[in-house]
Design brief:
Organism: Yeosuana aromativorans
Order of helices and strands: HHHHHHHHHHHHHHHHHHHHHH
Structural class: mainly alpha
Radius of gyration: 39 Å
Strand content: under 5%
Number of domains: 3
GO molecular function: DNA-binding transcription factor activity; sequence-specific DNA binding
Keywords: DNA-binding, Membrane, Transcription, Transcription regulation, Transmembrane, Transmembrane helix
Protein name: HTH araC/xylS-type domain-containing protein
Number of helices: 22
CATH architecture of the largest domain: Up-down Bundle
Distance between the termini: 154 Å
Helix content: over 70%
């Protein structure tokens, strides 16, 4: 009996303790619920207090923050979204979204929209575009480190790729919201908006014609200087806060600035697109059947086509912005995708057809010189002598000048002389002679202030044998007969001697 009671006693005690524990838990649970109800009532009161504060014109910015957090605590995602949006647009403080209160609505669509709009994020497309941009950077370096290349052509095509790369990089910063953290990166690629056309045009001119660049070619980049100085610099000089306002669309001071980028860029792309197309199709028309020629033509054709796709997609994007106020994601991505394709295509060709960059241009020139018996150095020497004969010696005034006699003076063959004329002036011998003669005739007629000279005298002076040939050549070059030209001089000068 004693043993039984000793055994039963602990069990009884244990049962008593269990009951007490259950009662304690129930009390704690009741208190927790009461505390939660009290907290919710307090938050509701606080919510109403802050709403009244807004109505009484109290400083609204800190109130927006409080209302956003309170509504998040109360699991009101729509109200939390509204006030968080207002707070961020006024303070640009994105850290509010890291507040623990937003954990209560983290699964709501409203909070996901806030995260998507303001916080740093990465997705498949941002990684893809970043990867393509890195390929582009590497390609630019490789193209400029190659040996035995036409440096001018490679600098132009690598610069063209670099412009695309910088735009893609800025798009990645925008896509990931990193631009909010580094607002001074805003619009940095826009400074190159008018360089797409000139760079590609000069590249095509170089590889299709062997064009030698002049100081005047710098004028192609003059619109870029104007764009930076008068449109973009006022934006670049803004502080970080003002740039974030522009990104969020809350700034009105530069609301339509993009039109001053979009319209000139579209015009530049279209104009240079036409010029590039003219060069390309002229090359096709005059091309040979060699494999090297075919490879370079295919390369140029594909570059031109990708560029046209970009122009078209950019035009659609700009029109959707101007007409609808926004563009669909697929429209916005289309011209970025076209840029990415351009980068990848150039990279692929640098790997698959390296001769296009390292030897293609040089081989085309050498093969042309080899067929005519010319070397590059001899061609340059003959070209310089040709300029001297026409500009300094005015050989065109000799009415007996012929391709054979000109070749004798140059000390080369008739075929070589014809080729040098074509390369230097892009015309044949007779067109060149007549051009210089008519230019000289124009100078003589303009300086004849008293009208003492007869047309036939001028014709003989510049190298023509008769008046008919002179009149025909004059009208072809000026769209006027010599008599009409003299009359136009008289009308403009109002000379009594006319």
């Amino acid at each position: 009996m004693f043993l039984f009671s000793n055994i039963l006693s602990p069990i009884t005690c244990f049962g008593s303790n269990v009951q007490e524990a259950i009662n304690y838990v129930n009390q704690v649970d009741y208190k927790a619920k009461a505390l939660e109800n009290y907290k919710e009532e307090g938050l509701q009161d606080l919510l109403e207090f802050n709403k009244n504060a807004l109505k009484q014109n109290v400083d609204s910015v800190p109130v927006f923050k409080k209302l956003a957090i309170i509504n998040a605590e109360l699991k009101n995602p729509e109200q939390a979204f509204q006030y968080a949006n207002k707070y961020i647009n006024n303070t640009f403080d994105f850290s509010i979204l890291h507040n623990d209160s937003f954990d209560n609505i983290q699964d709501s669509n409203e909070f996901k929209q806030l995260i998507e709009k303001y916080l740093i994020k990465f997705d498949f497309f941002s990684f893809l575009y970043l990867y393509i941009a890195l390929i582009g950077f590497f390609l630019v370096i490789v193209l400029n480190l190659k040996k035995r290349v036409d440096k001018a052509a490679n600098i132009l095509i690598s610069s063209f790729v670099l412009v695309h790369v910088l735009f893609v990089i800025e798009y990645v910063l925008y896509l990931t919201n990193i631009q909010y953290q580094y607002p001074h990166t805003y619009l940095f690629s826009s400074s190159l908006a008018l360089m797409y056309g000139p760079l590609l045009f000069l590249y095509f001119k170089r590889v299709t014609q062997g064009y030698i660049f002049k100081k005047s070619d710098i004028l192609h980049f003059f619109p870029t200087a104007i764009l930076i100085a008068f449109v973009l610099w006022p934006i670049y000089s803004l502080n970080a806060t003002e740039k974030i306002k522009m990104m969020l669309g809350t700034s009105t001071s530069h609301k339509y600035f993009w039109l001053f980028v979009f319209i000139p860029k579209v015009l530049s792309l279209i104009i240079y697109g036409l010029l590039i197309g003219k060069l390309h199709y002229a090359k096709i028309k005059n091309s040979g059947k060699e494999n090297t020629e075919k490879a370079t033509i295919t390369w140029e054709k594909n570059i031109f086509r990708i560029h046209l796709v970009y122009v078209f997609s950019y035009l659609i994007y700009g029109l959707s912005i101007s007409l609808l106020g926004e563009s669909a994601s697929i429209i916005y991505n289309s011209h970025v995708a076209a840029m990415s394709v351009m980068i990848l295509y150039v990279a692929y060709m640098a790997y698959a057809q390296p001769k296009i960059f390292s030897e293609g241009f040089i081989l085309n020139k050498i093969s042309k010189y080899e067929k005519s018996g010319l070397t590059e150095s001899l061609s340059k020497e003959l070209s310089e002598n040709l300029f001297k004969l026409f500009i300094d010696d005015k050989i065109y005034k000799d009415n007996g000048i012929s391709l054979e006699s000109l070749s004798d003076k140059l000390g080369t063959t008739r075929h070589n002389t014809s080729q040098i004329i074509n390369e230097s002036f892009n015309m044949n011998f007779f067109e060149l002679i007549n051009k210089f003669r008519i230019d000289e005739a124009i100078n003589i007629l303009q300086s004849d202030l008293y009208g003492n000279l007869h047309i036939i005298d001028v014709a003989y002076e510049v190298g023509f044998n008769n008046k008919v040939t002179f009149n025909k050549a004059f009208k072809k070059q000026t769209s006027q007969t010599p008599s009409e030209f003299i009359a136009s001089i008289c009308n403009s000068s109002k000379s009594v001697n006319c």
